[in-house]
Design goal:
Distance between the termini: 33 Å
Strand order of the largest sheet: 1-2-3-4-5-6-7-8
Order of helices and strands: HHHHHEEEEEHEHEEHH
Number of helices: 9
Largest sheet: 8 strands, mixed
Shape: extended
Structural class: alpha/beta
Length: 316
């Protein structure tokens, strides 16, 4: 599927919400909702009680059981399909879903069909092929947006009308390059952001990034590891001192003694250099001629002189 909507429809088919033991198998249950007297009647022959149908879904040895690693959303939808199948008919299913996880399904487009999810709070679209996210297609109720392992290289469309209540934004392992993207990471766009993951992109301007992130008054968790700017010697200390409300940086908790250790570093931007030194030590090389063999050749030998040239390349 190329869009999130298409992937969601495929997801529903995979759950089998209309297949036994889900769906409208118990006609008496449907009648019971219309007639209170029917609730007191015994379950007709050939029908299972709702409890028995739920047991078929929950028992790990049942052929209809979901795999252990399935999401809570999967279990919820299937149980709703047993207890109240009318809630999932047609477009009503979009009113039930609060968390949508579509991982590694080849999604390329975040389409406007997402606006049908009027209660959606969590959207996980990791490991797809998304390069552009239009904020006008995102539900305003969204609190968590995870887009790691995609191809997002520009935040302009995402920041046009971002969800105002968003608390976590995950953009790790994308193609963000500085310094043009830092301007989109301010309180004007993300007033309630608590957690931000920008790891393993190509961000280089630490000073510019910090000046924008300092406006995010609710930010407590920040991940920047894997960017070139993380190679700066004073990287962690400068961030710790510049963002006093930060609690966790690169998955490491910031304790009071560390904050005291780096106190005042934010007022010394001259310590931040735009270069870094990497020392590479080669322990062992295989498949190369032994240089000792050439040293044993006698001077003035008429034998041919053989020269070997090697090129070693490091990619960062």
């Amino acid at each position: 599927p190329g869009s999130v909507s298409a992937a969601f429809q495929e997801y529903l088919r995979h759950l089998g919400l209309k297949d036994f033991p889900c769906g409208s198998w118990n006609k008496s249950c449907l009648n019971a909702r219309r007639s209170p007297r029917a609730e007191e009647e015994a379950v007709p022959p050939g029908e299972e009680t709702p409890e028995a149908l739920l047991e078929l879904l929950r028992d790990q040895h049942s052929p209809w059981a979901l795999p252990p690693d399935c999401s809570p959303q999967d279990r919820l939808l299937r149980e709703v399909a047993v207890l109240a199948p009318e809630l999932l008919r047609g477009s009503r299913v979009f009113q039930v879903v609060k968390s949508l996880r579509i991982l590694d399904k080849g999604v390329e487009e975040v389409d406007e069909g997402l606006l049908r999810f009027q209660q959606l709070e969590e959207l996980i679209l990791s490991a797809n092929h998304i390069s552009r996210v239009t904020s006008a297609h995102l539900p305003r109720t969204l609190k968590v947006l995870e887009l790691c392992y995609n191809a997002v290289g520009d935040l302009q469309d995402l920041c046009a009308q971002p969800p105002p209540e968003l608390q976590h934004l995950g953009l790790g392992y994308n193609q963000l390059c500085g310094p043009s993207q830092e301007k989109h990471l301010t309180v004007d766009f993300w007033p309630n952001l608590v957690s931000l993951d920008l790891s393993f992109n190509s961000l280089t301007d630490l000073l510019g990034l910090v000046s924008q992130l300092s406006t995010l008054q609710s930010l407590r968790i920040l991940v920047l590891q894997g960017n070139p700017l993380a190679l700066i010697p004073t990287y962690r200390g400068f961030l710790v001192d510049s963002l006093p409300k930060l609690s966790v940086l690169d998955d490491i908790h910031i304790w009071p003694d560390e904050r005291q250790q780096f106190h005042g570093l934010a007022r010394q931007p001259e310590l931040i250099r735009s270069e870094a030194r990497v020392v590479v030590s080669i322990g062992e090389m295989k498949g190369l001629p032994d240089p000792k063999a050439f040293q044993q050749m006698k001077g003035g030998s008429e034998g041919p002189v053989i020269t070997y040239t090697y090129c070693v390349t490091y990619e960062f």
